[in-house]
Specification:
The complex is a heterodimer. Chain A is an all-alpha fold. Helices cover 42% and strands 0% of the residues of chain A. Chain B has a single domain (17-457), classed as Formate dehydrogenase/DMSO reductase domain (Formate dehydrogenase/DMSO reductase fold), CATH 1.20.1630. Chain B has helices spanning 7-11, 27-39, 45-71, 86-97, 99-110, 120-141, 167-200, 204-213, 221-254, 266-292, 301-331, 335-346, 350-362, 370-373, 376-403, 418-441, 447-451. Classes of the chains: A mainly alpha, B mainly alpha.
């Protein structure tokens, strides 16, 4: 009359362990599985033009600000207009097939449809100028762009990741003149330099909700 | 009392135990009667009619919830200044109803009130179904329901924790603990009865399903010994919850600084109200259910009368709390508090306030009369009044205070939308659908427990088998 045969009794510790492990699994799933660290890092979409940062920023040594002109003044770091490309490419490789979308854009005035890599949620207010002018380097958030053939997301850009730096900014501060340098190595411990800059510029990042969620 | 007193008077003699099971009072008959409801090839016609209506309402509920999730909480009437509206009102209303089951099964068990045995199963089931309806509201009113897990303290990418100082978080724990313990308590009590159904089953499907959920119960002495022990432990665990859950719910209001909410009377007042509304709902559902499924001899008039007495007592407590609130508003000398209470009674929501007073304070007073509290129609009508009144109580508390707070520039008048109304009606559909399914597929009365109050279990008297016996 019993639904369960006797050997089911041996399953009891397994079921108990399974229930406990199941709880832990859910917590781990939310903590790691649903984190941008897992979901977003490494995102590197194919772009309409195979623009190589490794070539332009690395080999040729163009400064970030040559193209991303507004980064020190505005909230956004500005995707350069086609005109910026054409400053050089009217003369350099003007027949290249790879550049066809750029030339098309140049001739009819439409935009090149670049794909956004670093995309914060709409409810987050982020200002590039506030960070760059205080000495947070490009490389701190975007990684070694000068070695990337195709740009990929290096950092999680999660809220916890933002807060890590807002709570303790000193390891990520450097003299503003080196902000765009990709391979700058501090001569002393970065915390010491960062602490000096923080004291000098009165850098006390806020962690209020309204700092980023306005 | 003289020897030739009538039997009705006899019941009120303190030393004569009332008859808890009427009619055919042998052990097998109880099993036959309760299992008969489940095993009947077809339920009564009224069951089909009822479940057609209630399941349609449930579909409407799911539709409203889907619309809300797809569109946003703006589809409800909640708006400045009443940011809390029917969602909170209905949440508190359903949580309150959920209190009767555990009170009957845990507190009355610990107090050895044997009359609980006939009604505890159904009341506990109602508790669970009411918690389902209540739990729905907090999870959908967060707006972005896909991040509702933020309510729980799970490590996450935002490095954010819920606000442990907020009573809304305490609520999450209080209600989820309550739901868990109620479910365990109910299910554990079901196990021996499920085994009975399994052993009587004639089809493979029934045997398999009831057998699976009976967890291998074979009724051995060791099983019973462990069962009794575990039941006692769960009853002891559930007892403080009856008091704590609605206290915590009342903190949602009492911890804030809104006039009319910020009072220390809220926890006891809410608990009394919850038990009041819970018993109201038990009477509302049990009166028709015992007729429909022929359980009149198990759920006797005596049971209903006892529940009506609880309604009378808790209803009077609620009335006392209303009066105390007014007294303190006057005696405390706080002009804001005084205004809020005058506004409750005489302001734009006067109709809700006085309807509430009639339903909660005046209507139950009729239960002093024995003729009324033993009349099925009368108690049914009064229990409906109790349900309406307790819903209005939460409405009055939430809405009158919010629409008339410190700043007269932001005063307003709350109006529900059709989504509010259909969602609320839909929760009744869900509640009743689950209850109807429960009546049809699970033993509505705790078979094993009722047997313990039969004469066969007490060869030395008690519970009316030896009228006038001087011992228990």
């Amino acid at each position: 009359m019993n639904f369960f045969p006797k050997w089911c009794n041996t399953l009891r510790p397994v079921i108990g362990a399974g229930a406990a492990a199941g709880g832990l699994y859910v917590v781990a799933l939310v903590a790691y599985g649903a984190s941008p660290k897992t979901l977003n890092v490494g995102f590197a979409p194919e772009q309409p033009v195979p623009f190589s940062h490794a070539l332009h920023a690395g080999e040729l040594g163009l400064d970030c600000r040559y193209c991303h002109t507004t980064v020190e003044k505005g909230a956004r770091a500005a995707i350069p207009p086609t005109e910026t490309c054409m400053n050089c490419h009217t003369r350099i490789r003007p027949q290249s097939d790879l550049l066809a979308p750029v030339f098309a854009s140049w001739s009819d005035g439409s935009s090149v449809r670049w794909k956004r890599v670093h995309d914060l949620p709409d409810y987050v207010y982020f200002d590039h100028s506030a960070h760059v002018t205080r000495g947070v380097a490009c490389v701190s958030c975007h990684g070694r762009v000068d070695t990337m053939e195709r740009v990929r997301q290096e950092q999680p850009l999660s809220m916890g990741w933002c807060l890590d730096c807002h709570r303790n900014p000193t390891p990520n501060l450097r003299p503003p003149e080196f902000v765009t340098a990709m391979d700058w190595t501090p001569d002393r411990a970065p915390e010491v330099i960062g602490a000096e800059i923080a004291a000098q510029k009165h850098i006390q990042p806020s962690t209020d909700c309204s700092t980023c969620h306005r | 009392m003289t020897v030739d007193s009538t039997s009705a008077l006899h019941l009120d003699e303190p030393y004569a135990r009332p008859v808890l099971v009427e009619g055919d009072r042998d052990i097998a008959a109880v099993t036959r009667r309760v299992c008969g409801v489940v095993e009947a090839p077809k339920p009564p016609k009224a069951w089909y009619v009822a479940i057609t209506i209630t399941s349609a309402m449930t579909v409407m509920l799911f539709g409203c919830v889907a619309y809300l999730i797809a569109t946003g909480v703006g589809v409800w009437g909640n708006n400045s200044p009443a940011f809390w509206g029917w969602d909170i009102v209905n949440f508190v209303f359903w949580v309150g109803i959920a209190h009767a089951g555990t009170l009957i099964s845990a507190i009355l068990f610990l107090l050895r009130q044997k009359w609980r045995t006939s009604i505890n199963r159904a009341a506990e089931a109602m508790t669970l179904f009411a918690v389902c309806c209540a739990g729905l509201y907090p999870s959908i009113h967060v707006g972005r329901i896909w991040v509702a897990y933020w309510l729980f303290p799970v490590p996450n990418q935002m490095q954010m924790w819920p606000n442990f100082r907020s009573p809304l978080l305490w609520d999450v724990f209080a209600v989820s603990t309550y739901a868990t313990v109620s479910l365990l308590f109910w299910y554990m009590g079901l196990v021996p009865d499920l085994a009975t159904l399994r052993d009587r089953a004639t089809t493979k499907l029934r045997k398999g399903l009831y057998g699976f959920f009976a967890l291998g119960w074979c009724g051995s002495a060791r099983h019973w010994q462990r069962y009794e022990r575990a039941y006692l432990i769960l009853a002891a665990l559930a007892t403080p919850l009856v008091l704590s859950v609605h206290s915590v719910v009342s903190f949602d209001f009492a911890v804030s600084q809104v006039p009319g909410w910020h009072t220390t009377i809220f926890p006891p007042y809410f608990v009394a109200g919850a038990i009041f509304s819970g018993f109201g709902m038990v009477v509302t559902t049990m009166v028709p259910a015992r007729e429909l499924f022929g359980l009149k001899e198990l759920v006797t008039l005596r049971h209903l009368e006892n529940m009506n007495k609880v309604i009378l007592a808790t209803g009077s407590m609620v009335g006392l709390a209303y009066a105390t609130e007014f007294f303190i508003a006057w005696y405390g000398g706080n002009p804001y508090e005084r205004f809020v209470f005058l506004n409750r009674a005489l302001g734009p929501y006067w109709w809700a306030y006085w309807l509430m007073v009639f339903c909660n304070v005046v209507a139950p007073q009729f239960l002093w009369v024995k003729k009324i509290r033993t009349n099925l129609w009368a108690m049914f009508v009064i229990s409906i009044f109790v349900n309406i009144g307790m819903w209005l109580e939460r409405f009055v508390i939430v809405v009158t205070s919010l629409t008339r707070d410190y700043l007269p520039t932001s005063w307003g008048y709350f109006a529900p939308t059709w989504v509010d109304i259909c969602t609320f009606a839909g929760t009744f559909g869900l509640f009743l659908t689950l209850f109807l399914l429960f009546c049809r597929y699970l033993p509505m009365v705790a078979i094993a427990e009722v047997k313990t109050v039969l004469p066969a279990a007490h060869p030395h008297g008690g519970h009316g088998h030896k009228e006038g016996a001087h011992h228990g």
